[in-house]
Amino acid sequence: MHKAYFALALFGLLALAQSEGDTGLAEAGSYTPGPLGQITQPLPTPAGEGSVYRVGAYPLYTPELADGPGKDLVQGYCQVCHSTTYITMQPPLPAATWQAEVTKMINTYGAQIPEDAAKAITAYLQAHYTPETRK
Ligand code: HEC
After folding, report:
1. With a 6 A CB cut-off, is 77 part of the ligand 1 pocket?
2. Does the residue 99 lie in any domain?
3. Residue 86 beta carbon below 6 angstroms from any ligand 1 atom
4. With a 6 A CB cut-off, is 79 part of the ligand 1 pocket?
5. How far does the signal peptide extend, from start to end residue (predicted)?
6. What is the CATH number of the domain that holds 96?
7. How far is Cα 102 from Cα 121, in angstroms, rounded to an integer?
């Protein structure tokens, strides 16, 4: 009879050991607030005597647009919200995509561009920035 009690006790101990393992798992998922709201950064390198601290111009580089009819319209209408780098940084895009881009600027982003100017701009982009025409 006492053999059965012994087995039961052993089983209990095993169960306890098992649950302690589970406790460890539970802790792994509970996060303490820690140093919330603190942003830490490394200390600046101490400047030696005679050090010179120089700040240059921020490197903003907008490539020149291709020359051709409509360039002035692009510069006038398309630079209201962003630089023309948005055009030059694109890979060569199919003519239909440029058409869609101009339409998107007007319909989605609210660019105020008269219809004839929009047509001329689209023609300009298609004449210089498609896989066939881009230099
Ligand atoms: C009313 C503001 C506005 C005007 C004017 C405007 N754009 Fe945009 N353009 C945006 C916004 C907003 C985005 C997308 C947001 C971003 O990526 O910064 C964008 C993104 C672009 C992109 C990146 C590709 C894309 O679809 O997101 C191109 C190319 C572009 N514009 C071309 C043009 C051209 C060409 C014109 C002139 C016809 C023009 N934009 C005029 C607001 C404008």
Report:
1. yes
2. yes
3. yes
4. no
5. 1-17
6. 1.10.760.10
7. 8
What atom of ligand 1 comes closest to residue 125's alpha carbon?
35
Report yes or no on 76 lying in a domain: yes
Residue-by-residue pLDDT tens, the chain, 135 positions: 567 676 656 555 555 555 444 555 555 555 666 666 777 777 777 778 888 877 777 777 889 999 999 999 999 999 999 999 999 999 999 999 999 999 999 999 999 999 999 999 999 999 999 999 998
**Any ligand 1 atom below 6 A from CB of 100:** no
Contact 122, 78 (CB under 8 A): no
The two structure tokens encoding residue 22: 């589970």
Tally of structural domains, the chain: 1
Q: To 5 degrees, how large is the angle CA 128–CA 93–CA 66?
A: 20
Give the range of the structural domain holding residue 85, as residue numbers without chain letter: 71-128
